[in-house]
Design a protein that fits this description.
The protein is an alpha/beta fold and 287 residues long. It is 37% helix and 19% strand. β8 (269-275) and β9 (280-286) form a beta hairpin. α5 crosses α6 and α9 packs parallel to α10 (256-265).
């Protein structure tokens, strides 16, 4: 950063010659989309000093979303930061399947109840609720649109989820899977969406450095076979789902048979859908 730049000036006012230098630093650090990242950093920083600090964090390996403080997901700006899982584009397939499942349900309630289990930042639940509210002709979730609930065992995750779901009227609970949910939700939930960790424990070390070094292990490690949490989720789902309610779990093609078997054992009617472009699979269980 040139020494003569006024520290009180806006980063957006930096000379164009600065942009190639930022791109060069990012590219040297291994950032594949260096040009796009440079533009985002410039647009986000408010002072040259802040910009320099953000570039330093990114070059050191911190996820871009942590550096700028948000992630774009399904057209929404999701607040994220150190200690919470960053929503991935592949989860858009889970969103689409969940919305379609609610729309296809027999006797769908005027205000469907959505539960985002293992919610992390709350991105998936918020996206589902937003799309359903728009489909119902209202963008007001929680008040005649969609009743949104979310839960996670990680206090860091629930802190972000509360910030993200506040405007939507979503309720966030902290605890192990269904344990913290209010009893009045039993037998009433129209759709449960789950993006629980499904990477086998001994393969976490093979994940990209941005994930394994910065995101919380509890959001990555799916146990010995990658389906441990899925099995627990499926086992209790029938207790919480409404008649004809759906459980949707994002997983991998390899873990899908294990997840489907767990749903079948719980008495759910199952189906498996995949998206090759997004390289993702969703297992659906119907009550």
């Amino acid at each position: 950063m040139p020494d003569h730049v006024d520290a009180a000036a806006s980063a957006a006012d930096l000379p164009a010659a600065t942009v190639p230098a930022i791109v060069a630093r990012l590219r040297a650090a291994g950032c594949v989309f260096a040009e796009e990242e440079a533009r985002l950093l410039l647009a986000t920083a408010t002072t040259p000093h802040e910009l320099a600090a953000m570039i330093g964090r990114r070059v050191a390996g911190s996820p871009l979303e942590y550096v700028v403080g948000w992630a774009e997901f399904c057209g929404l700006r999701i607040i994220v930061g150190p200690g919470v899982f960053v929503p991935r584009r592949r989860s858009e397939f889970l969103i689409d399947q969940a919305v379609a499942a609610v729309k296809s349900r027999a006797g769908t309630a005027a205000a469907p109840i959505v539960l985002d289990l293992c919610c992390g930042s709350g991105a998936i639940g918020l996206a589902v609720a937003t799309l359903l509210s728009e489909a119902c002709g209202t963008e007001d979730t929680g008040r005649g649109g969609v009743e949104l609930h979310a839960a996670d065992i990680d206090p860091g995750a629930t802190a972000y989820a509360r910030r993200n779901l506040a405007a939507a009227g979503g309720q966030v609970y902290e605890g192990d899977l269904y344990d913290p949910l209010p009893a009045e939700l039993r037998g009433r939930i129209d759709v449960i969406v789950v993006n629980a960790p499904y990477v086998p424990s001994d393969e976490v070390g093979l994940m990209p450095a941005e994930a394994r070094l910065h995101e919380p292990l509890v959001a990555l490690d799916g146990g010995a076979d990658g389906a441990g949490i899925h099995c627990r989720v499926a086992a209790e789902a029938p207790t919480w789902l409404a008649s004809d309610g759906r459980l949707l779990i994002e997983t991998s093609e390899r873990q899908a048979p294990l997840t489907e078997a767990a749903m079948t054992a719980a008495g759910l009617t199952t189906s498996v859908v995949s998206d090759d472009d997004l390289d993702t699979t969703v297992v659906i269980g119907r009550a």
